[in-house]
Design goal:
The protein has 275 residues and is mainly alpha-helical. Helices cover 81% and strands 0% of the residues.
Length: 275
């Protein structure tokens, strides 16, 4: 009886010890699993935060690039306007210099005319003798820029020439060059860009109807192009220039909806505030 009791107690203690060890192992495993879960969650949160910050930085960079492009064109336009004003002032001064001798007294005018005739006659005789002894020289004011020669210029060269023209504010010339490029390479690599920059040239010449037509070609025929958002923004500006504020608002709002968190969307948002 005592032996059986002793065996029972020993068995009970053994089972209790096993149960205790199992309980401790389960507790340890639970703690390890909880720690792993917490670490994984912390890592996921940190990664999500980094990704969000990266996306925000990319959006800010795109916005800055868009603003730089727009300001660059505004600077070019201001330079062109300044040059036009300078040319106008210079022309007026030339007109005044030409008109000034006509108001001189008659005797003075006759003496000046006589001296001028003598000088012109001597100059004419000297010019004739020099022309007969020397070969003709090209005019120093002749343009050194290559003419439009489709048989000589490659696709990239022809496009680059037109692009350089629009960047340097030679808008009329760039339009002709882009038309030539599009006529020679209707399926070329730079067709979408050519339509876009042609629209930009028209926009800065304030020929808004023609700018609208250029941008709409991209929307209708090249909707999968990376230039689509920029073309939509240009189209919005063209509508604004045409006085169609409702369509301009609609186009700029559509940019924000279709291309959120991009540089062109930020430009559209800024432009909407001014409408």
């Amino acid at each position: 009886m005592n032996l059986r009791h002793t065996q029972t107690v020993t068995t009970h203690r053994s089972l209790y010890g096993r149960a205790f060890r199992v309980s401790v192992a389960i507790t340890l495993l639970t703690a390890v699993a909880a720690a792993q879960t917490a670490f994984s969650q912390s890592s996921n949160d940190a990664m999500s935060l980094l990704l969000d910050q990266n996306r925000q930085l990319q959006a800010e960079i795109q916005a800055l690039r868009g603003q730089l492009d727009e300001q660059g064109f505004e600077i070019k336009k201001l330079q062109r306007d300044s040059l036009n004003r300078y040319t106008d002032v210079d022309q007026r001064l030339s007109d005044l210099e030409v008109a000034a001798p006509q108001t001189a007294p008659p005797a003075t005018a006759q003496r000046a005319q006589g001296r001028t005739s003598a000088v012109n006659q001597a100059s004419s005789q000297s010019s004739q003798s020099s022309q007969s002894s020397q070969p003709s020289q090209p005019s120093p004011n002749a343009s050194t820029r290559p003419s439009l020669q489709p048989a000589v210029l490659s696709e990239q060269q022809l496009y680059q020439m037109a692009y350089d023209s629009v960047i340097n504010s030679h808008f009329e010339r760039s339009i002709a060059e882009f038309d030539q490029y599009l006529g020679q390479y209707p399926e070329g690599r730079f067709v979408t860009n050519a339509h876009y920059w042609k629209g930009q040239a028209y926009l800065y010449l304030e020929r808004f109807e023609e700018a609208r037509s250029a941008y709409e070609i991209i929307l209708e025929q090249y909707a999968d192009s990376s230039k689509l958002p920029d073309a939509m923004y240009g189209l919005g500006l063209a509508y604004q220039g045409m006085g169609n504020i409702q369509r301009a608002r609609q186009m700029l709002t559509d940019i924000k909806r279709r291309f959120p968190n991009t540089g062109v969307a930020n430009l559209a948002d800024t432009r909407l505030l001014s409408l």
